Amino acid sequence: MAPGPGATQLGANQPSVVRRSATLLRLLAAREPEGAMTTRLATAAAIPRPTAHRLLSALQEEGLVERDNGTGAWHLGPECFLLGAAATTRHDITPAARAVVLRIAQETGESAFFSIRRGDETVCVLREDGSFPIRSHVLHEGIRFPLGVASAGLAILAFLPEARREAYLARVDLTAGYGEEHSAAALRERVSATRELGFAVNPGLIVVGSWGLGAAVFDAHGQPYAALSITGIEARLAPPRQAELGRLLLEAAHTLSSGSGPASGSS
């Protein structure tokens, strides 16, 4: 039996609907636990507000998002938790990373993180705060940055094969969102410095005064698939302590690279 006009139209529009819905879910993941309003999500996803509201309402019916009746903000729903829990049997690389991140936070007193590469972005999946009372809130679990932004993304970008790195720099323009310090020329300079040091340094380029150090974690094929990083105020991450912290990160990254990486890197 041939499908009716409605089914044909749905089939034609489905990829766009799925893609837009996935974008909204990723945006919400990056904005937890505060959530986000419909207008902000629509703007970030570059879709009309009525379309965003319609998609969010459909996702709400499936339990993938929920709305705070008091504030009107959208949040990830309980179904996302259940799906994520089911996926851990294939994709969970955090148990070993969690122990390493906790040790870094305890030894340094700074906030420590584990971020994974997902396409052209890094996603923070683990955070542990150290004992030092002044903390940076630039990074939190779920937040995403383009490769080359923040120390984790710079560390991963620096150790990608040159052809893939140059292809990425040729197709993206990070200056609109992150300033001229993230132009292709500026990133090439920081990539060179990162490769020389072995670890990446973010000297307060996202939030003034909040520095970051990052070291790439490699998979079984020698490709960077994740990064360990720490953040703190300039006085605690600048030289001469920087070299000591960098060595600690590199040793921890080597431990994860040797024992817990996936069989192949992210695409």
UniProtKB/TrEMBL annotation:
Superkingdom of the organism of origin: Bacteria
SMART domains for this protein: HTH_ICLR
A molecular function GO annotation: DNA binding
Domain IclR-ED stretches: 79-262
PROSITE patterns: HTH_ICLR, ICLR_ED
Positions of the HTH iclR-type domain: 15-78
This protein's UniProt keywords: DNA-binding, Transcription, Transcription regulation
A GO BP annotation: negative regulation of DNA-templated transcription
Gene3D superfamilies (alphabetical): 3.30.450.40, Winged helix-like DNA-binding domain superfamily/Winged helix DNA-binding domain (1.10.10.10)
Name this polypeptide is given: IclR family transcriptional regulator
Species assigned in the record: Nocardioides albertanoniae
Organism phylogeny: Bacteria, Bacillati, Actinomycetota, Actinomycetes, Propionibacteriales
